[in-house]
Amino acid sequence: MTLAHARALLVESAAHVEPFDDPRDRKALAALAAWAVRFSPIVAADPSSIPDGLFIDITGCQRLFHGERRLVNVIANTVQWLGFHARIASAQTYGCAWAVARFGGRERTVIPPGMEREALAPLPIEALRLEEDMIDALHEVGIECIGHVLELPRLELVTRFGSDLLRRLDQATGEADETIEPIRPREVPHVERVFNGPVKQLEAILLTVRQLIGELAEKLQQLEGGVRTLDLELERSDAPPVHETIELSRPNRNGQHLWSLLRPRVEVINLGFGIERIALIATRIGRLRHRQASSWRDGARGDDDGSPIDESLGELVDTLAGRLGPQRTVRIRPVESHIPERAFRQQPVLGPRASADGVAAVTASERPSILLQRPEPIDVMAATPDGPPSWLRWRGVGRRIVAGFGPERIAGEWWEEEENARGPDDTQRHKNGENDAPSRSASPLAACLSARDYFKIQDETGRWLWVCRDLASNRWFVHGQWA
Questions:
Q1: 164 and 228 assigned to the same domain
Q2: Is 477 domain-assigned?
Q3: Is 207 found in the same domain as 162?
Q4: 257 in a domain, yes or no?
Q5: Strands, E, within 288-394: which ranges?
Q6: For residue 61, how many C-alpha atoms fall within 13 Å in the half-sphere facing its CB?
Q7: Which residues contact 260 (CB under 8 A, 6 or more apart)?
Q8: pLDDT digits (tens, 9 = 90+) for 213-261
Q9: pLDDT interval class at 449 (50, 70, 90)
Q10: Would the pLDDT of 415 be above 70?
Q11: Rounded CA gap, 269 and 256, in Å?
């Protein structure tokens, strides 16, 4: 139906209109087909002009699920659990299953062998996967369902409508063969080494792991990719296998860097009575763009596309995360908020990288390089009530102010009045289900979200501070400083 017709049938508040993106739909359907390999090794996306389904060859897989009907229910329930409303049919031919799934009377149907004609006869002619012009030609002569086609002589059908009609009909009834092009999941890059007997020498284990890293790097270079998650597996002769996993902040296939991350972990592994097998598996990889080697490195830029500067930064981050811990190494991500303490968030550097789409700093105003986690109250003296201070006492030390700029007024987020009234600390406790009573450790600036006046000032020692005045209580705080 047309968009106007759909809008007329739907409640205006419930209508959501989004432009059709055919490449995105095909990519998503291919991902769903790769996911469905758990039910059968032969899975293909619908090759029609507007794909909206999957072909799954379940021949020989029924016994693993205790019968064909039970397998049909398992597939339908699992797809429904993913959030899709699915219709599913099982038959001896792809054409019959396609037709019954889309035009049958039930959402889950199993067609017994030899009953294809009886199942297809009451279905409309559109169930034969014909072109639009052929469907219109059949409707013009009064052919509305597949049963009408089955009753007509084949010679007359070929003479009037061509061979494509009989080909689709024979494919649906099993008179003609039909093949599909199944998806072929990409093999996970991996290398391994199997010893003739248990190896107890740590030096031999280290040498083997380093050789395997070089072999894996060659495979990744052929794929133009870099490893993001690397698994090391060592099978011991007298104990369960040992698994070690390293996460990288960016795709990397530098053998020396991977070796520097793996070596400290291998050196502390309990070898037991010996290692019989060592395997390296790149369980998650990322694309590394091919680039021309250059002798002029000073012109390279770190634009996150595999440039030398970008690789060096990624290796530094990986090294810090390996030594300090992945949860202690964080990156700063901007948040759409003009309130200073809410304008950013910390994310683990080795976690999934958040998309930068729609995330940007709201204000272009200058901000201090160090923002205090908890604003500290100060005593000030000012020449004018609304002007910058001329003297302040902070942390027990009095300083004279030699320069000042401002004010910059920052008010609270009016669309979150209730949360602003609690303050950032109380809001977080409220979200966690804790008591809303004020805490002694709460920030003294928590109640200042209604309005603040910020000043950039310089004291007599040359230090630049970012101070603010709460308009409600007329109290002053130091909120940051420039390093």
A1: no
A2: yes
A3: no
A4: yes
A5: 330-334, 344-348, 370-382, 389-394
A6: 19
A7: 319
A8: 999 999 988 888 888 899 999 999 888 999 999 888 888 888 888 998 8
A9: low
A10: no
A11: 20
